[in-house]
Write a structure and sequence with these properties.
Elements (H helix, E strand, L loop, with lengths): L3 E7 L2 E6 L5 E5 L13 H23 L7 E10 L4 E11 L6 H12 L2 H5 L5 E7 L1
Parallel strand pairs: 5-6
Antiparallel strand pairs: 1-2, 2-3, 4-5
Helix pairs in contact: 1-2
């Protein structure tokens, strides 16, 4: 069953619609690759997918153990390679305002993040740098 329907809009812009929810994502080519850079680029979405997948899996683990993740935030840095043009590294830097004091559980969250489906699906040439500031 189809999950996403997409369309080329012209001028290096695409739109993709999530069938079940109707939510839409627009992409633009980045300025450094002939685009306008007015929306996420496709490689931005890959980097964002890694961070959001990590936190989703952490959330599943936290829910199972009745731990609240409120106050958890993260920043994503995507580093591109030129020859060939591809993602070289994705850096995820997580911050948690009021982390649990349970060190064993914090390590459990870190392990869960590192084994999220996106992390396991990315090519091994893409360096995944994870910084857990908690």
């Amino acid at each position: 069953m189809t999950t996403i329907k997409s369309r080329y809009q012209g001028n290096l812009r695409t739109s993709s619609t999530h069938i079940k929810s109707g939510n839409e994502i627009i992409t633009d080519a980045p300025v450094d690759n002939n685009g306008k850079g007015q929306a996420f680029s496709p490689t931005d979405l890959v980097a964002a997918a890694l961070g959001t997948c990590m936190v989703t899996i952490m959330g599943i683990v936290a829910n199972r153990d009745n731990v609240a993740l409120e106050g958890l935030s993260w920043e994503v840095t995507k580093i591109m390679d030129d020859q060939p043009r591809k993602i070289k590294e994705i850096i995820i830097s997580m911050h948690w305002e009021k982390p649990t004091e349970n060190e064993k559980f914090r390590q459990k969250l870190k392990n869960a993040a590192k084994t999220c489906p996106v992390a396991l699906s990315l090519h091994p040439d893409i360096k995944q740098t994870m910084q857990f500031n908690f």
